[in-house]
Specification:
It contains two helices and ten strands; from the N terminus they run ααββββββββββ. The protein is of the alpha+beta class. It binds FE2/S2 (inorganic) cluster (FES).
Length: 171
């Protein structure tokens, strides 16, 4: 008697594997339905999570921190400070008699520190020649993928106060 053939001349595995050709489609359909159900469940859970996040997760609140006195730095001058956390280095630039701008000092490419080039009137990253607009922090040239985060400044009794950080495109 052969090990590979049964008396009905069917391969042995067909006897042991009890799924008939006609039922294979049924199993496939069942698997497909299962896949659809799981995918729908996943999407439903994702939507629930987004909904919960919208209602329950608050946007971060930033501290109010005095970063400089008005007139403390000359026009074209720079002051470095940290905001909102001690490890977040920022750069304040006085661009005119009464104009101040501040940005995160961390380049959005590979995190080198940017500096202000008064000659060029822009923020420059020395690592890969990434240049940012001093007006709005947008990328002028080079590999940085995003604008520099802008520090929101307000004036209060002769002081410049950092009130928040704006990330992304700034107008
Ligand atoms: S780290 Fe600034 S351009 Fe690469």
């Amino acid at each position: 008697m052969s090990l590979f053939r049964n008396p009905s001349d069917q391969p042995l595995w067909k006897d042991e594997f009890s799924v008939f050709t006609a039922d294979e489609r049924y199993v496939t359909r069942r698997q497909f339905t299962k896949f659809l159900s799981l995918a729908s469940l996943g999407m439903f859970a994702g939507n629930l999570w987004i909904l919960a996040k919208t209602f329950f997760v608050k946007t971060p609140e930033f501290p109010s921190t005095v970063v400089a006195e008005l007139g403390e730095i000359p026009v074209g001058g720079v002051k470095l400070f940290t905001y909102p956390a001690p490890q977040d280095h920022c750069i304040l630039v006085r661009t005119g008699d009464d104009k101040y701008v501040a940005y995160s000092q961390k380049c959005t490419h590979l995190s080198c520190a940017v500096y202000y080039s008064a000659q060029q009137g822009r923020l420059e990253c020395p690592c890969h020649q990434g240049y940012f607009s001093i007006k709005d922090g947008s990328v002028l040239q080079g590999p940085p993928p995003r604008p520099l985060p802008r520090i929101v400044l307000e004036r209060d009794a002769g002081k410049l106060v950092a009130k928040g950080v704006k990330v992304g495109e700034h107008g």
